[in-house]
Amino acid sequence: MTNHNENIFPVFHEIHGRTEKETLLKQRSKVIWLTGLSGSGKTTIAKHLEEILFGKGFLTQILDGDNIRSGINNNLGFSDADRFENIRRIAEVSKLFVNCGVITINCFISPTEEMRDLARKIIGSDDFIEIYVNAPLRVCEERDVKGLYSKARRGEIKEFTGISSPFETPENIDIEIRTDLLTIEESVKQVLDMILPRIIC
User: Fold this and answer.
1) Among the options 40, 94, 110, 187, which is catalytic?
2) Which CATH number belongs to the domain containing residue 182 in this structure?
3) For 103-125, what is each residue's pLDDT tens digit?
4) Strand-by-strand arrangement of the 103-107 sheet
5) Which of 46, 53, 64, 170 falls 20 to 30 Å from 40 in CA-CA distance?
């Protein structure tokens, strides 16, 4: 059997490196990984956070579950294997952004500790900031702006996290944001206060 890896020759050593690009952008690149149930507030926090960081002169990129699944991962379903592959690809893409000096804000349910650990391993623990965006299932269902919980309750969506598929409480987080207790402004401020010292050159 042919080993295709024998025919791969990376040229990372021949191109401009991360340090040079961070110096150019005047920032330190990190991956801010927002995990939590659908409707917990991940994307809302990410959009507000990006707006503030952009205003402060930081270059960012948001990777969101729906956007990724409509593009690079549009061939994946929601089986355990496909969910792992979804997270693996996202982590690899995020690592590329980190190496370009870009601050990446990721919004993914990433429901199991194993998935989140996989992402952390690929990206590197020093560059991985895990934020648990936490709201009770009841609150997430009340928000339900996409109507997904209603469909899951009716059995129209299979393997839906929080209803027919479990969400494991994160164990290795940098910060937990209780969006049922905080305003969006308070939530974003907590995230900002925590990450700013880690992204400022």
Assistant:
1) 110
2) 3.40.50.300
3) 999 999 999 999 999 999 999 99
4) 60-64, 103-107, 31-35, 128-134, 175-178
5) 53
